[in-house]
Write a structure and sequence with these properties.
Number of helices: 10
Structural class: alpha+beta
Oligomer: single chain
Helix content: 25-40%
Number of strands: 18
Strand order of the largest sheet: 9-18-17-16-12-15
Radius of gyration: 25 Å
Strand content: 15-25%
Amino acid sequence: MPINILMPALSPTMEEGTLARWLKKEGDKISSGDVMAEIETDKATMEFEAVEEGVLGKIVVPEGTEGVKVNDVIAVLLEEGEDASAISAAPAGGGGAKAAAAPAAAEAPAAKPNGAAAPAAAAPAAASGERVFASPLARRIAREKGLDLAAVKGSGPHGRIVKVDVESAKPGAAPAAAAAAAPAAAAPAAAAKAAAPAGPDAEAVKKIYADREFEEVKLDGMRKTIAARLSEAKSTIPHFYLRREIELDALLKFRGQLNKELEGRGVKLSVNDFVIKGCALALQAVPDCNAVWAGDRVLKLKPSDVAVAVAIEGGLFTPVIRDADKKTLSAISAEMKDLAARARNRKLAPHEYQGGSFAISNLGMMGIENFDAVINPPHASILAVGAGVTKPVVKGGEIVIATVMSVTLSVDHRVIDGALGAEFLAKLKDYVEHPMGMLA
């Protein structure tokens, strides 16, 4: 029977995408692992790999098509011995019901090291509420055999259930708990969506400006995602803000000395590199701040995984420097330059911009002296970094000139209280004002 190939969910926030380019044509033989197409998600352009084997019988969605919903049929694969006449007899859809919405962090499988992600075709929900990833053919065979996919161990990429797994599994009735799990998992998301305030009606707004000249700009996937996530953050996270001024003169002097020593290696450290390292060490010093909000609990992380906002055309990425507390300043500098360059080209893999427990947004290089940043869920805090400004300060009863940087810590009050946030900023201030300590 022909196999429907579905639009995959290639990132946790992806609801639709653009089928940028087909790399295979109708009639081509397809093997598992072959790259079939390039798909633009809300964050990047990614390669889409085949899981099943066969012949590409029909391309349903032509390349360049925008707004293709996740789990829509994009192509039809013919099994051995079938021809194009079998396509008209194939059932519509993906061979199974779409999975209920799961928490964003669990929606997509982990990316492959080369940046390609396995297609996240919808599957039934397990009894625990987690999604089960299975190929369309595996789902069809499971239904025919009366198998509970939640009880089948997948041997495909990232644990995905494929044909051979269900063929070798013994039939059994699916537990009722699995069916109940999907609506239960979807309920919080549905409630949150219902509670979210509705935005202004586009046509009503356009009428207000009907007598004025304007250009109507269509939102792309990234901008839609940014709008949705920031609206969610400001409406559901109880933000509060802590502000401190940090003197930079010792750091600037130390940075100059290091850069002179590292010049022969082609390394040039930025102030931001020191801020990343300082935040990573401060998270280790105040471990209760190294945490994320997980709905009905708090997850306290052991490593300092620091996300850093990178502006790109039309939006931003927050690539993550993992284990930043253990890395040298030169290693952080090199990794940050690489991640930022690939972010601007939208070439980051999901595992490079997902996760982290803390974020930094630095607008100092743009002349902004201070600002408040919006927390990126599930993070519990984000540090807004302003420009270093020369100003008079009082030291030992005398007025002297110093270079001062203003920082603002936006905090999720459900996770971090005021005193705890203040302790984190005190540690950060100490590291930045005594930068030699970062090398100890």
